[in-house]
Amino acid sequence: MNIVVQGLGEMGASLAVCLNAQPAHHVIGVDQDPNTLKLALAQGIVAETASQLAPVATQADVIILATPVTGIIQALQTLASLPLKSDVIITDTGSTKRDIMAVAATQLAHVAFIGGHAMAGTHLSGVTAANPQLYQQAPYFLIPNQKGQAALSTLQALLAPLQANFKTIDTTTHDHLMAMISDVPHIAAFALMNAAVKQLGDVADFGQYVAGGFKDTTRIAASDPKLWTDVLMSNQAAVLASTQQLMAELTAFNQALAAQDTDQLLRLIQSAQKARQHL
């Protein structure tokens, strides 16, 4: 099976290396960075490379788009103009789905498209972050278009080597869920890191004193800035609703502290502790 993976960052390269290890598959990696392509080929992450999607897409049985959301949308628009195989399956790894599914619905309704998003990944980036175990036991959401419904079992069988936990979901539910459990935690980490620098000075001045709490809470502040700007803007409405909820909770803590309301402060912390124990 000819499989094209566009975007050989952490997510795409980790997916490609799993599929390329299967004898029945020929994986072609597409990326604009020549060094990424050279490294991916040398390390056996892919069997073949290309710098552009269009020349290799027409002979693909499966196309996996693993770039940021804006890049996925551009790729879908490119694919819509190509003479693809009639039974091709197209999927993606974008972390928000509304805009992607909208483009697929209007321009690729004749093709089996299955939106995808795995709850995997770290703060690392690039082809050097490729990890064949990245997807193991991770929730992996799938959102098929009408024609994609019939291809769901085929795609899941193809991706079985990832050892992910597949779950179908609708676009709106997915994006609202991601806003609170993925997008807003990143905003909180970015904001806390920025607040610490503004209040305490350069990291060199206070970094030697931080312990597990600060390091754990700000770990994802080291994430790719361009990627997360793209993610947050593509899920704007849902993220704004979730940040409002977070700010309301922060206000409740501030009010309890300002009023020296020990009982209310205790209730807020206990409520969070009880919920966290169920994760």
TrEMBL record:
Coiled coil: none annotated. Belongs to the prephenate/arogenate dehydrogenase family. GO terms for biological process: tyrosine biosynthetic process. It comes from the Bacteria. PANTHER family: PREPHENATE DEHYDROGENASE, PREPHENATE DEHYDROGENASE [NADP(+)]. This is Prephenate dehydrogenase/arogenate dehydrogenase family protein. Pfam families: PDH_C, PDH_N. Residues 1-279 form the Prephenate/arogenate dehydrogenase domain. Pathway: Amino-acid biosynthesis. Keywords: Oxidoreductase. GO terms for molecular function: NAD+ binding; prephenate dehydrogenase (NAD+) activity; prephenate dehydrogenase (NADP+) activity.
